[in-house]
Design goal:
The chain is an alpha/beta fold. It has helices at residues 3-9, 64-77, 91-101, 113-120, 170-177, 182-188, 192-206, 216-226, 239-242, 244-256, 267-272, 287-295, 329-340, 343-353, 381-389, 403-419, 427-441; strands at residues 54-59, 80-85, 108-112, 163-169, 211-213, 232-233, 236-237, 278-284, 303-306, 313-314, 318-321, 446-447. The strands form three sheets. Strands 4, 5, 8, 9 and 10 form a five-stranded mixed β-sheet that branches. α8 runs antiparallel to α10 (244-256), α10 (244-256) runs parallel beside α16 (403-419) and α10 crosses α17.
Length: 453
């Protein structure tokens, strides 16, 4: 795949986060708050675009890998790329404050999954499918389009696919489940009922010292990702239909004694990757390098990857949106087309930062994402993600301006279940508490009618 991919394979860091994938890695946010120009010294190749053009991107990743990747774009087009570090959680306020004060808006802003619903509700985005931009969404993976469209129907911009399956520790799988073969495990654990049944067996066989999953949050990440039922419909809470099945399954797992008590995405859970207490972990395409290999540095050969009970699911993602008041909108869309509507853009994303592309034609070449991975005992995980995970994403839950508030009350419910020693928690009470909190935070919401029996 070339010299750049070799560098990546030797351990370059991904530009995507452990929590939201293409989403919340903000370790570069302190870099050059006034912006950096990754290609200031790059020589524009003969035949490139006219000199003097540039774009500014507000983003949470100003890493050297991204700068070097964007320098390739500058060489080909003459358009310089200035990166300004903005943490994901600050993006909404910074955009609104800049617009209100008459400040200079970015040409592209990153809309991370956790905050995307609120950002997409703002009436500040250019529809880049219209003249003169004509961004061709027919070439973008279908499941992504609703996640990249504003409340008013404006197509804001593309993103890299962030999708997930299930990673597992081979030795523990062999000992407690009788096999470490991914296809055999998929057949054994095809749905959540069979997963829970096996979890009870593992708990009994290990004397309660080995768990199917490291945290309730890990289970919830999969269950939420596999559900498409909206939490709110027409400003009315829809928790009974959307949240109840998730909470009921989490309570059932807690009562089975098959889930470790760690907090999701905590340092303690990170340390568990290198131990032999927990068998399975939800695993996004960005988790391979950024989460699993970074947390289990001596774990080469001990990991496997499979489709999870209930099927693969989306996890994370960051849309690159173009504001209406951006100064260089045509150059910004040229940048987006270059990286998300061309084969070369897919190659650069793959080789420099390990991202998958949203460009459909790329997946016609079965060798494009293919690399046996010694860390996963020679399994070709990238090929599985490209050919088995991405095509089988069943659907997505549409972004909502209330997503952050919903996450807050959901996380409180998780803590309540996890703190219960025997899992004897009332889902009705959890839902009532969630509803009360949401209605207090968002007075424009109301209760939905109870479901018909």
């Amino acid at each position: 795949m070339g010299k750049r991919l070799l560098v990546y394979l030797l351990g370059t860091a991904l530009c995507i986060s452990s929590l939201a994938g293409c989403g919340k890695q903000e370790n570069n946010a302190a870099e050059a708050a006034q912006g950096t120009s990754p290609a200031q010294n790059a020589q524009v190749e003969e035949g490139g675009a006219q000199e003097g053009r540039e774009i500014t991107i507000w983003c949470w990743d100003t890493s050297e890998n991204n700068r070097n990747m964007y320098a390739e774009f500058t060489k080909d087009t003459g358009i310089e790329v200035n990166l300004v570090a903005v943490e994901s959680k600050d993006m909404t306020q910074k955009l609104q404050t800049t617009l209100a004060s008459g400040g200079e808006m970015p040409d592209i802003a990153w809309l991370e999954a956790t905050y995307r619903g609120k950002l997409l509700s703002l009436d500040i985005w250019e529809d880049i499918t219209k003249e003169p931009y004509l961004f061709d969404t027919s070439q973008i993976m279908d499941y992504l389009i609703p996640l990249e469209t504003s409340e008013s129907g404006i197509y804001v911009g593309p993103e890299c696919p962030s999708v997930a399956g299930l990673a597992y520790k081979r030795e523990l799988a062999r000992e407690y489940l009788g096999t470490d073969d991914p296809k055999e495990l998929e057949a054994m654990l095809s749905d959540w009922d069979s997963f829970i049944a096996k979890g009870k067996e593992v708990a009994e066989k290990s004397g309660g010292t080995v768990y199917m999953l490291s945290s309730l949050g890990a289970a919830g990440q999969m269950l939420k990702g596999q559900s498409t039922e909206p939490f709110i419909i027409d400003n009315k809470l829809n928790l009974d239909a959307s949240m109840r099945p998730i909470l009921e399954k989490l309570v059932e797992m807690k009562q089975a004694g098959m889930i470790d008590v760690l907090d999701f995405n905590s340092a303690e859970e990170g340390a568990s990757y290198a131990r032999n207490d927990d068998i399975f972990y939800p695993c996004a395409n960005w988790s391979l390098e950024f989460t699993i290999k970074s947390n289990d540095k001596d774990g080469a050969g001990r990991w496997g990857f499979m489709l999870p009970p209930g099927g693969p699911f989306p996890w994370g993602g960051t849309v690159s949106g173009v504001p209406k008041d951006a100064a260089h909108k045509e150059e910004a869309v040229e940048f987006l087309k270059y990286f998300w509507l061309t084969q070369k853009g897919g190659e650069l994303n793959r080789d420099y930062v390990g991202n998958f592309t949203s460009y459909k034609p790329t997946y016609e070449d079965e060798s494009f994402y293919s690399r046996p991975d010694d860390f996963f005992a020679g399994q070709d995980v990238l090929k599985v993600i490209a050919q088995d995970v991405l095509p089988n994403i069943k659907g997505v839950r549409l972004p909502s301006r209330y997503d952050q508030d919903i996450d807050d009350v959901y996380n409180l419910a998780l803590k309540t279940i996890n703190a219960s020693p025997d899992g004897k928690v009332s889902v009705d009470e959890l839902l009532a508490s969630m509803a009360d909190e949401l209605l207090t935070k968002q007075p424009d919401l109301s209760m939905s009618n109870p479901p018909q029996q």
